[in-house]
Amino acid sequence: MIRNALAILLLALAAPLPAIAQDDARLPPIPFLDAWRASPHANVKSEAFIHWDKEGAVPVACAACHSGPGYLDFLGSDGSDAGKVDKPAPVRSVVDCVTCHDPKAIALQSVLFPSGRKMAGLGASMRCTVCHQGRQASPDVERATAGLPADAVNGELRFINVHYAVAAATLFGGEARGGYEYAGKAYHGRFTHPPSFATCTQCHDPHTTKVRVEACGACHKGGDLRAIRESSVDFDGDGNTAEGIAGEIATLHAALGDAITRYARDVSGTAIAYEAHTHPYFFADRNGDGVASKDEAVRANAYSRWTPRLLRAAYNYQFVAKDAGAYSHNPAYALQILYDSLEDLGARVPTPVARMKRP
Prior knowledge:
Layout: H1 2-14, H2 33-37, H3 47-50, H4 60-66, H5 68-75, H6 97-101, H7 103-106, E1 110-112, E2 118-120, H8 126-129, H9 138-145, H10 167-172, H11 200-203, H12 213-216, H13 245-268, E3 272-274, E4 282-284, H14 308-321, H15 326-329, H16 331-345
Antiparallel strand pairs: 1-2, 3-4
Helix pairs in contact: 4-5, 13-14, 13-16, 14-16
């Protein structure tokens, strides 16, 4: 009964209508309420929660991560079978205290990832991985391209989108196989920080979701997380071993974007352009300027001249693009899948991979 009452209260507090005042004497105090209110999980006006307003409900396929009740449905906390969502969820039902502090959420010890592998070892932070694992994985790309000539355009191929906020997939690396992994290559597994920074909520404030930057300063001086690096290896081959590992990843990512553009033009025969905020992200670049303009970044102009080689590289480009913290979550894995994509495209178009180093 207490949990149900709290859920009703939180819905009122998060609603876009005038909310009940936090200091209303009729209400019990809710710990960390202001912190939660400032988080993306509470932003009832964000695209993550309003996307299905016109439909009137969050569909089953999306409800586990875009609705608090949908998440509880997935856990089986509503009395249904765990591991699946049974019914559409209400729109604008945010991820609230009840969602994350549900006993079944706290008790999660392992979570199934899109690759079909179960991941464990994060304690109570496993509840975060339910939604921050992406929607696709290496096996999906493998199945789509299996048996097809690497450089033959295939009209049945479509871009395979990992989705977004894929931190957990990056963190577990080659164990979860979130990125496309090339045959014959070895991939770094779970990235581990020191024990006090080994789980999601040890690095991120669980209520605001912000990184605990001040805590990082105990080992990493300066306060700029992107400036951190522990390796003296020049992975991107630019001669700069003082830049943060984030800079190394950014250089390889940009190089992969250039190689994808070159391959699409010279091998697939149609120029391509990327738009990070518009599904399905890769579009035909009709004027060849390298930019997906507003009139080009529309579904009807989705890029359609995919070859297996191009699709694999584009999948990895998107994987790294959709984890802004890859440099902290698992830099070795990010560098490996970028390097391997560049190496593979290098079989057909010039790339700078020869001067780079693979972790």
